[in-house]
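Problem 12. The chain below contains 808 residues. Write out its predicted structure in token notation.
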Amino acid sequence: MSEQLLRDIKQTGYIHRPLPRYTKHSLEAAQKQLEVLDSRILFSAKESDASRWTFKGVGEMKVDHDGSLSITSPTVMPHWPEGAPEDGDYVNFGEAWLVQRFHRENWEPFNRIAVELKADFQGTPNTYVMIKFRNEGVIPIPDIYFREGVHGINLSNTDWNTIHLNIAELPRDVITEVEIGYFINGKSHATGDSMKLSVRSIQLELVDQQEVTKGWLPSPREIVFSHSGYRTDSAKTALAQQLDTEHFQIISEKSGKSVYTGTIDHVETGIGQFQLMEFTEVTAEGRYYIQADEIVSHPFTIGSSAKVWHASIWKSLNFVFCERCGYPVPGIHGTCHADIIAEHNGTKLAFHGGWHDAGDVSQQMIQTAEVTLALFELAERIGPIDEDLYLRLLEEGEWGLDFLLKTRYGDGYRATSAGITRWTDGRIGNMDDCAARVHNQAYENFYCSGIEAFIQSRLPDEALSKRLLEIAKEDFQYALDVFTEAGFDQKPIFWEHTYQTSESLFMATASWAASMLYMATQDELYAEKAVEFIRYVEQSQELEGIPLQDGTSFLGFFYRNTDKKVIQHFNHQAREHLYLQALVSVHETQPNHGEAADWLQSIQAYGLYLKKLSSYTAPYPMISSGLYHVDEHLDERSFGHQHLLVDERAHDDYKLQLQEGVQLTEGMYLRRFPAWFSFKGNNAIVLSTGKAASIAGQYLKDQELLDIAEGQLHWIVGKNPFGQSLMYGEGYRYAQQYSVLSGEMTGELPVGVQTFGNEDVPYWPQFNNATYKEVWVGLAGKWMSILADLYAADTSSTAESFEAEEVR
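Solution.
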């Protein structure tokens, strides 16, 4: 870690205040350096006619004394917007927009737009504004899901901000409208009564060296690599195109001397032609950069897991802390959401605590539970090498555990989620309150019982540990009672993050929970249930193999149920790792069982599946989404559970999306990105699959699987076609994200890289919108969970591993 980060960690009280945000290496900072080749003024406070603008929404528009346009609104309203749910579920208090219409203008000669904005949002935690475009040309914008053509910006409050937005991939052949405005997101303790947004200028620009935003090929003559670095014993590669040399060097940042010279290989894969630089032979710990002729990369680390990834853990922990709900996070919000109320059996509780789910500050109990699990899992691995980080992970985990216990009614019912998307005043009984959902769901209770059983042995508080084990046993029984009565027919809860759960994933989760309880209690009842449930999982796995046209076969993946008609996919939420967690746990706790050899075979088959799957995105480490059958969309039950907020058009688009993938057989396709519609972004998917790889790699002692797991981290921190780190504050060229109410947080991770329309190539526009750019606290949990396995597999970790290196 850098000396600066160590100082920051100490100055925040070991993350009891947010880490500072450094913009030096951000994408926005890089944009300011681009040369403007041509421009056209759309609006200027000095020259333009303000009468071309109109206003819609809550508030009023006026022309200020300097000629700039402004809109002013209250920060809260006495009623919900027209058409909103009566209970205020997942709504704010309205919107305010400046609107300028254009007469079918073609903006294709320009690739950037620059806008000068100033917000004066009194006491608002984050000054978030939006720009929306309407195109009525070949590709209409916005799209049917209102994802494309909308850009959100976190402004510096009360200052003039110049926003540079890359529009190279925006369909703009017939532009008819631009809107600039904001959401009215309510009042917290410190919020004032009004909010004002001013616009001083808008200019179309043509700039040189515009960012790559779509496709597999990186920018010409740019080296794509893992910004955080590479573990000593892992595979090490970097990518490029159009380098004018046949050799590259690895240079020591400290000495400035070359430690390795390699030949640049020219590789052709199913996704394109690349120049590949491999330097796996470099194993000496240190800071290095890659040089190919005059092209030089930023520095990165080679070393133990702790050397490479420790900084990202502190930053991920910072993100989790900043998402605390019901806790005053300095510089972000005060004690929040005390008036989000869950009611059951005549009693009420304030559904705040744990961590906000995402950029919209909604709450999901199961998301908090999963992050809590990851914190305890990683803390166990960190303990021997970094006591400070161990104690801080433990503390944050205990905060999450408190919410997990608080929201449990003790009769099978739990407060499970709330759609908030606003700040509230904390006073119970007025109109800005929100009702939390309360349910007795078998799946949630199985999952929570396993998490509780796992955590209980890792708690330093003996009394709480014993009580938590009793709670885990109770929750398992509640789940078993409901499942015995309803089976798989219990209706899932719309908007819950478990809505997509398949039968096979349900049984994997239940089996894992049983194994955790068996490990804790040695009660044979749990051993029997773990075996009973895992049989369903095995019966849902493809072990015979799907024969391919090239004579090989695909095997090891899972179907949604034992019918084996619909393959298990994840397109938003992702829990692929639970299959491997269940298989490894039952094999580890019952190695002498008569079916143990079958469980091991299932683990090995899945490992082979991941290795084969990885070849379709080489030379990038991002793992493909998986296999799809042409008729899966005809299964209305599974299709409806997998894809939210879609209509009949999704069925036609599903077929088109498969055609953009790789045809394996007459009825089977491989998609590198999921088949998806309204909800896009694959970080949860690659991290969950990466966790499955790390579980299998650790258990089988398979270095290739561990490399696949670490590769998903590499993808996120820069080894992607865009050369961007998706973790804010880690690596280089990280961009603003969709964090509407809290603003940018060091360590935040977005939902992830998406695709455009029905295509199957990566698409990462600068446009900042849900869902792909929305920050998601569950991703920090998955990040830390993979690192728990990599640290466990890394025998070179030492007490000195986290000490400061040269500043980066």
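Discussion. The chain has 16 helices and 31 strands. Students who got a different answer should revisit the alignment rule from Section 12.3.
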